[in-house]
Amino acid sequence: MTDSPKTNLLGMTRQQLEGFFTAMGEKPFRAVQVLKWIHQHWVEDFQDMTDLSKALRERLAQVAEIRAPEVVYDQASADGTHKWLLRLDDGNCIETVFIPEKDRGTLCVSSQVGCALDCTFCSTARQGFNRNLSSAEIVGQLWLANRRLAPERSVAGKAPERVVSNVVLMGMGEPLLNFDNVVDAMRLMLDDNAYGLSKRRVTLSTSGIVPAMDRLKETLDVALAVSLHAPNDALRDKLVPINRKYPIAELLDACRRYVREERHHQRITFEYVMLEGVNDSPEHARQLIALLRDVPCKINLIPFNPFPETRYRRSGDAAIRRFQEMLANAGYTTITRRTRGDDIDAACGQLVGKVADRSRRALRFARLEGTGGTAP
Ligand code: SAH
Q1: Active-site residue 297, yes or no?
Q2: pLDDT tens digit string along 259-271?
Q3: Is the CB of 305 under 6 A from ligand 1?
Q4: Which residues, 6 or more positions from 327, have their beta carbon under 8 angstroms from its beta carbon?
C-alpha cells in the first residue's frame, strides 16, 4: 500500500471500520454494510454497494479502496487443488493453496513473506525472512479464493454460500511472529458480518512461540496446531531450531494452558513431519506416546514433501503406517495427511521456491513455462 494515498478497507476489522466511518462523520453502522459487501459479496467497486447513498459511494471512492494482492499464476491440479501465486504491492510474491474435500474446502494461507525460522526440512526457510503481511494481504487471500472459486464451484448457476469452509494458517511464515495483523485477519474470518467461520474451522499453526501462544489465548478463540516434529529436545533442536529458545517442556506447558481455559475445550493438533531415518522409528513413536500423555491432543502425520536440494526423504509408507498404528494403539487420534496437488507443487513454499521470490521471474515463469496454469 505504498504510494496510494487511499485507505485500503480490505483488512479492517469491524471495529476499525466503525472508527473509519465515524472519522468521516458517518454513522458507525455503515461498517457492517460495507463489511458484508466486501467479504460476503467480494465486491471491490464502491459503486456496487447499492444500499449506500450515491454521495457516500462517491466519497468512498475518493478516499478508500478495496485492494487485494494480484494473482500472477493460478495452477489447478487434477484433484481440484488450486495454487495461487500472488504478487504484493512491493513486488514480493506469496502462495495460497485451496484444497477441496468432500465435506469442506480448506484454504492454506500465508502470513509472512519468507520466514525467519530456520526449520531444516522447510522450503520457505531457504528464502529467509522478508517482511510481515498486512491484515489486508492475509485476509485478501481468502477474499480472492472465494471470489475466484464461486463461479467455478457453482451448482446450476448458483454460487455456493461458502466455497472456503476452513482456513489454516499453514502457508509461508510464522503467524505468531506477525501477531497483530494475523489476529485482525482472523477476526474477519470469524466475524458473522464477514466470513462467519466457526472458531473450530480457523486453525493457526505455530512452530511454538511460547509467549505468543499465551497472548493468543487471551486474545482470540481459534484452533491451534503445533509443529512438533520430534519427541525429544536433542532432535527438535536440529529440526525446529526455535526449540533452543522454547524447549519441548515449555511448549507443552503452553499447550496445556491453551486448552485448559473454559472456552478452549478443544484439543491441540500436533503436526509431525515424517522424515525417513530421522524421526520415524518405533523408538520415536514410543517417546512421543509418553511425551503427550497428559496433553489433550490429536496428531497429524505429514509425509515430508521433498523439494530440490533437500537432504531429507519422505518416510516409506510402511514406516508411516507402523508409526500411526503405534500412536493409535496408545489411544491417540492420529491421521496421516494425504498429499494433495503433488502435480502442482502444492506443498507450501514450493512454487515460490521454484520461481524465486522475484515477481519478474515469477511472471516469466507463468508466461513461458505454464504447465496447465491459467493467466489471471
Ligand atoms: N510456521 C508455522 C506454519 C508453517 S507451515 C509452523 O511452523 O507451524 C505448516 C506445516 O508444514 C508445519 O508443521 C511445517 O513444519 C510443515 N512443513 C514445512 N515444510 C514441510 C515439508 N517440506 N514437508 C512437510 N511438511 C512441511
Answers
A1: no
A2: 986 655 689 999 9
A3: yes
A4: 285, 288, 289, 299, 334
